[in-house]
């Protein structure tokens, strides 16, 4: 009896083990089925989401491989001499035109890093100001921009046109908005940073870098960088070349160091004469990004300044950057696919 009982116990144990193994096997199978279903569900959801995104892009006629106007301003003064300065009235009129034609300002930093998050159907524009003059920004005793300065006018236009962002990039030199005391210089730079404006490097002394040796080029740019970083916690990511002139080796302007201060920019801007390529295209060259002078159609500006180029972009809307409203995708008509830059291929949304 004892032997039979032992055998019975053994058989029972084997049966329990087999049943347990069968259950585990069935459990594994069920888990795999559930995982497969979840994967299929996620794929279906992703496909549905992509289809919806494509429909939005198509409706907006999105072309995020199109051209972007980067407009260059200097002083905004009442009686400008011949050259690049504009009157407050001229500046306001250009901003009003940009708002009316569905442009939305972005900063130079946003442009070069590809962070263009504007509504569907809108077009980015980069407003840049060279030389940090008092006519661009002067604060009153309460820390508010004076209304006749570039910033004051920009903020006023933005209030009248919801969605027209009051942002721009200021390329600063040692004459920091006419402020001589470090405390005053800190105040104005902090104000810009705190209000969403971008600060760029324009060299320390506005030196023409054309033909200058590498050491002098790096000294000028590095000292311009240190001027900003020593006053506020902000490091410019773009440079605007004085007079638009590149040094002997263009890369000297992009990356270098001097006296313990280094710089490594994401983009270097020139002074003319065409709209800039989308940062998502193979045409984008961070070492030499074109800008457009703000000017009406006179002289060489009949073809190459802001009024002429805005007219051209308006007449050739399919060549202009138009957003799909989604900062995580790069939308464009399918036939433009060969122009997508490799770093953005995963975000491509052709339609």
TrEMBL record:
Biological processes per GO annotation: xylan catabolic process
SUPFAM superfamilies named in the record: Glycoside hydrolase/deacetylase
Signal sequence interval, chain numbering: 1-21
Subcellular location field: Secreted
A Gene Ontology term for the protein's cellular component: extracellular region
A Pfam family recorded for this sequence: Polysacc_deac_1
Chief subcellular location: secreted
Domain (NodB homology): residue spans on this chain: 133-351
Keywords: Carbohydrate metabolism, Glycosidase, Hydrolase, Polysaccharide degradation, Signal, Xylan degradation
Gene Ontology molecular-function annotations: hydrolase activity, acting on carbon-nitrogen (but not peptide) bonds; hydrolase activity, acting on glycosyl bonds
Full protein name: Xylanase
């Amino acid at each position: 009896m004892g032997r039979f009982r032992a055998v019975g116990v053994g058989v029972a144990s084997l049966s329990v083990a087999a049943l347990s193994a069968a259950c585990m096997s069935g459990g594994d199978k069920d888990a795999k089925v559930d995982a497969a279903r979840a994967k299929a569900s996620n794929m279906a959801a992703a496909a549905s989401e992509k289809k919806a995104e494509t429909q939005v892009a198509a409706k907006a006629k999105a072309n995020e491989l199109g051209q972007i106007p980067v407009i260059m301003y200097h002083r905004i003064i009442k009686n400008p001499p011949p050259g690049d300065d504009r009157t407050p009235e001229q500046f306001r009129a250009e901003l009003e035109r940009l708002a009316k034609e569905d442009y939305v300002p972005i900063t130079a930093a946003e442009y070069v890093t590809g962070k263009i998050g504007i509504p569907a159907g809108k077009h980015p524009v980069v407003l840049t100001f060279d030389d940090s003059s008092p006519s661009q920004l002067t604060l009153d005793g309460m820390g508010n921009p004076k209304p006749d300065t570039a910033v004051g006018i920009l903020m006023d236009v933005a209030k009248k046109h919801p969605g027209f962002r009051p942002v721009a990039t200021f390329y600063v030199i040692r004459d920091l908005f006419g402020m001589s005391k470090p405390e005053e210089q800190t105040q104005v730079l902090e104000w810009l940073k705190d209000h969403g404006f971008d600060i760029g490097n324009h060299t320390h002394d506005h030196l023409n870098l054309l033909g200058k040796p590498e050491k002098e080029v790096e000294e000028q740019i590095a000292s311009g960088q240190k001027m900003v970083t020593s006053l506020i916690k902000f490091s410019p990511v773009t440079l605007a070349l004085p007079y638009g002139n590149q040094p002997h080796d263009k890369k000297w302007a992009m990356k270098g160091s001097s006296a313990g201060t280094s710089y490594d920019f994401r983009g270097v801007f020139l002074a003319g004469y065409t709209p800039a390529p989308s940062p998502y295209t193979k045409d984008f060259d961070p070492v030499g990004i074109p800008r457009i002078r703000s000017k009406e159609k006179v002289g060489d500006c009949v073809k190459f300044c802001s009024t002429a180029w805005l007219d051209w972009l308006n007449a050739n809307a399919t060549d202009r950057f138009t957003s799909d409203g989604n900062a995580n995708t790069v939308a464009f008509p399918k036939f433009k696919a060969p122009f997508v830059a490799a770093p953005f291929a995963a975000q491509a949304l052709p339609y």
